Every structure is written in structure tokens, then in C-alpha cells.
Amino acid sequence: MDNILQTIAIWAIPVLFAITLHEVSHGWVAKLLGDTTAQMLGRLTVNPLKHIDPVGTVLVPLAIIFYSVLILGTQYPIIFGWAKPVPVNSRNLRHPQRDMAIVAAAGPLANLVMAMFWALMIKLGFGLLGTFDWVAMPLIYMGMAGITINIVLMVLNLLPVPPLDGGRVVSGFLPPRMSDAYDRIEPYGLFIILGLLATGMLWAIIGPFFGFFVDLIRTMFTLPPEIFG
After folding, report:
1. How many CB atoms lie within 10 A of CB 200?
2. How many whole angstroms separate alpha carbon 216 and alpha carbon 119?
């Protein structure tokens, strides 16, 4: 139980803000492109309570933590989840098809920026080691969790499967007829992802990209080799 509580304490803030800012970025970019739906509904806020989905933000991450700690015996699981989608009305956008692709790309881009922020927190943590260890160690562990959750969300959401962001990006650059046909996959998108997850193919697909971006961030910020070693 101590291990579970420690793992929850490490992951809570990175998960909440990774999911929240991902959704807020969609609404913020939509506003810039002409749609104020998210703003009118009070969703352009970093307050996690406005974005929490009971299943995707709470139950799924907690289930992964319990399974990883109790069954697999690890305190550093690969966690993912989701928040309530920020509503976007494409009819309010100036160029609906193109702008929806831009709005969709904003979420994964926000996750990449947040991963870089957490890399800076790790750097700060190592700088405080030996003097303020009580601050340094939480920063390092939360930074590792923050990089992990944000890169997982970015790579997962960039899969070209509607309704994931990658699917909407692809749809935005297809000719109208092909875009309409491609969008018809959306009702089956969740089942496609669950099928990939159940067969182990999902991590086989996103794992190499996850490793690439983690190594890229580690190199960019000259993080110690033991980070994600």
C-alpha cells in the first residue's frame, strides 16, 4: 500500500496536467481559428476539475497503477488516460476541414511542450541534490512521470485512427470525398485501439516512437544517463 500511495503521489500532478492542457490546447487553438464554443462552456481553463472524466482521468490511471505495483511489482508504470473532450464546432471555423486538422494537432504539440517542461524540472531537481533533497527527489521522479505520460499521450494521439487527433489531422489533408469516407471509421476507432491493445500490437507500434522522443528530450536537455536508462 505504501508503494501504491507513493506511485499515486508521483503521477497525480503530471497526469492531471498532461490530460488537462492537452484538451485546453484544442479549445484555445479553436478559439484563435474562430470557434469560441469551448470558451463559452468554461473549458478554456487549467482547472483539472473542469476536464476530469471519471473513467479516463481517474479509474484507468488508478487501475494501471494498482496492476503495475501489485501484479507486476513496478513503481514506474506506463500510464495513460483521457479527459472530457473539449467541444469544437467545425462550422464556426474559417476553413473547417483544414482548421480541424490544426486544432487536432494542438493537443499532441502541447504534450511535447509539457514533456520539455518536465525535463527542465528534472534538471532543476539534480541541481538541488545534496542541498534540498526533500525537493529534489520529488522533482526528479515527477519529471520522469511527466515526460512519460506526455510522450505516451502525444504518440498515442497521433495514430491515424479517427477519433484520435492523428485521424483528424489526416482527414484534414485529404480531398473532401476521401475525408468523408475516412471519417466514417470514427465509430469503430475505439474498437480498433482496444483490439491493438489486447493483442499487444499497440505498444509494438507506439513503443519505438516513444523511445525516440524520450531519447530526443534526454539528449536536448542533457539529462543524466540513468534517466530512463
Report:
1. 8
2. 11
Helix and strand counts by DSSP (H, E) for the chain: 9, 0
The torsion angles phi and psi of 18, rounded to 5 degrees, stand at: -60, -45
Query: DSSP characters for 156-168?
Result: HHTSS-TTSHHHH
On average, the pLDDT of the chain sits at 89
> Which helix or strand (DSSP H or E) is residue 61 part of?
helix 60-66
d(CA 174, CA 172): 6
Would you please indicate which residues are annotated as catalytic (active-site) residues? 23
The angle that helices 96-128 and 2-32 make with each other, rounded to 10 degrees, is 140
Residue 104: all three cell numbers together: 487536432
Q: Which three cell numbers stand for residue 229?
A: 536508462
Q: Residue 100 and residue 102: Cα distance in Å, rounded?
A: 5
Residue linked to cell 483539472: 48
Q: What contacts 24+ positions apart, CB below 8 Å, involve 156-160? A: 156/80, 156/206, 157/22, 157/107, 157/108, 157/111, 158/108, 158/209, 159/193, 159/205, 159/206
Global pTM? Answer: 0.90
- Asked if the model's pLDDT at residue 159 lies above 90, the reply is yes
**Structure-block grid coordinates of residue 26:** 484544442
Grid cell for residue 171: 482527414
